[in-house]
User: Which sequence fits this backbone?
């Protein structure tokens, strides 16, 4: 499908990957399967473009399988709220605000297996900074349900989907649909905690 429908350079990469033969495919998949929390997604060798194509092809194949496994796993509530996935140890893709009482509670969505877990409301998921003076929130009317939560301590950001504003929003979809917010944050010198499957 990628060979047939993808843009030129990605389609060409898919053709070369297919030509490399079945013995090479598990090597690629293993490289992008989270090994442990300290090194959840080790970098691939090659040019940045090749790395991005490898990551895209591997994650497109692996992510539904990882989500299937996580959905059926008995994941214990962690004793300490941490910013890595309690199932696979990967970093978060996005944050979510869900209605709770008169306010909202915050959770994080895993970038790999899509597990969602509770996280503290005021803290950076990258460096755990909790001083509100160093934590900024940016929003725009164009994407009213999505906001950029940035940390001036480590200069990272995560996009959070606010379900109190739009209960029909889907975090993974709205995170991807709000690419202009990612480009804006990049221009301001922030780095995304975890790129989505298209590398943004």
Assistant:
């Amino acid at each position: 499908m990628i060979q047939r429908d993808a843009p030129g350079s990605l389609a060409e990469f898919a053709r070369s990957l297919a030509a490399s033969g079945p013995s090479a495919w598990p090597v690629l998949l293993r490289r992008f399967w989270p090994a442990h929390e300290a090194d959840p997604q080790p970098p691939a060798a090659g040019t940045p473009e090749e790395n991005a194509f490898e990551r895209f092809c591997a994650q497109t194949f692996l992510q539904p399988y990882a989500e299937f496994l996580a959905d059926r796993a008995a994941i214990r509530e962690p004793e300490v709220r941490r910013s890595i996935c309690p199932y696979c140890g990967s970093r978060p893709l996005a944050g979510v605000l869900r209605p709770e009482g008169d306010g909202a509670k915050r959770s994080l969505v895993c970038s790999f297996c899509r597990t969602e877990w509770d996280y503290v409301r005021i803290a950076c998921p990258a460096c755990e900074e909790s001083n509100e003076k160093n934590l900024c929130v940016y929003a725009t009317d164009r994407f009213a349900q999505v906001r950029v939560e940035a940390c001036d301590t480590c200069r990272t950001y995560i996009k959070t989907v606010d379900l109190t504003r739009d209960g029909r929003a889907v975090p993974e979809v709205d995170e991807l649909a709000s690419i202009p917010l990612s480009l804006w944050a990049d221009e301001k010198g922030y780095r995304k905690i975890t790129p989505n499957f298209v590398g943004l």
About this structure: The radius of gyration is 18 Å.
